[in-house]
């Protein structure tokens, strides 16, 4: 590829051994308090709850205050008028078996406003076995801005491999990565590009909005989760912490992407991996609440389980691969603290909680981690409310009421199953790199009585 120091050369670094150390360390942290004197058994959990609870409160408050300062559309209009020249943009989609949605994507991209001649849409047919190639061929005759690349089914590298292949041909200043089910508002680029240029960001992540949130209870909960995630992301950034890419709707400046080696083909989550390599390379990532990128939430529990396992594995992989560079490198102290707190909350807490439960069963004592878990879930509920009640464009966010909020908090507990399961699997089984495709249905929605049976 065209970058100096190819990301394809970034190989897994003893991930299995590091996974085992992570599992053992969390297991000890969760079980050890059960052998302490009952009078001090809860002190470790209460202490950590106060520290991490303070971090969450500070993050959410920063996000709420930041939302009050978000630019209005009038301000964004003035900002866009301040651009002397509009930079070129390449929109890139890696598509495999996407006949249900790829036509809709191309047609809607034709409605996105941007100066003529400066916008191209690149679609990489990544070894499709359905009618995706035929659909794309018909679309190319109708839309001059569409460029097609075809990869063999056994080309390797998954989505990262497809993105690296097209990266060699791109010459624009900005690259916008979309999933095949994505949809943008007509003015998205007119607002996103000035925001990125004015902020001197190397990358910007759009808020993800679930277009099918009203289909069933699971899609509604995912919509709540995406709003929650965007609030946390903006709060982390506002407190001099770290923001991360989320794959769909990520805008990348090409020189920054080349500087950190392109996309890593040795990971199952190209976006999370790239977030850390940009961070190490001192390339800042911004987050934009409005306008959002619209996408489909998965419809059933089986699909959610597969998707979340991949997210969990990729999330852990990046910490195992880049941990020393992150925590002992040249990052700011505030960024290191943010990463540590995030790691403890997202990955260590579920593992410790599961070990705590095992320790309680073995010793016939009460669980000890509950003060931390209660604080985290309560503050997560506050974050959900902050996200879902915030002024937003795109699909309507779920209305907040006690039942919805309670379901949202309970729903987040699925990470307390996904993280331990994935961690133990990574520690015990040989490494694997599987890019699991998420099914996109487009207009071919299933009948409502079948939506929860996947």
Question: Overview of this structure, please?
Answer:
With 454 residues, the chain is an alpha/beta fold. It folds into 2 domains: 15-66 and 331-441, no CATH class; 74-299, Spore Coat Polysaccharide Biosynthesis Protein SpsA, Chain A. The chain is built from 15 helices and 7 strands. It has helices spanning 15-31, 43-68, 73-81, 102-109, 132-142, 158-167, 188-199, 217-238, 254-259, 270-280, 301-327, 333-363, 370-388, 402-412, 415-428; strands at residues 89-95, 119-126, 146-151, 174-178, 203-210, 250-253, 285-295. It has a 7-stranded mixed β-sheet, with helices on both faces. Helix 5 links the parallel strand 2 (119-126) and strand 3 (146-151). Helix 3 crosses helix 7 (188-199) and helix 8 packs across helix 13 (370-388). The protein is globular, with a radius of gyration of 22 Å. It starts with 14 loop residues before the first helix and ends in a 26-residue tail after the last helix. The relative contact order is 0.17. Residues 1-9, 72-78 and 444-454 have low confidence and may be disordered.
The number of distinct β-strands equals 7
State the major sheet.
7 strands, mixed
The helix content is: 40-55%
* Name of the top-level CATH class of the largest domain: Alpha Beta
If helices are DSSP runs of H or I spanning 4 or more residues, what is the number of helices?
15
**If classified by CATH, what would the architecture of the largest domain be?**
Alpha-Beta Complex
Keywords:
single chain; 454 residues; alpha/beta; Spore Coat Polysaccharide Biosynthesis Protein SpsA, Chain A; 2 domains; seven-stranded mixed beta sheet; 7 strands; 11% strand; disordered C terminus
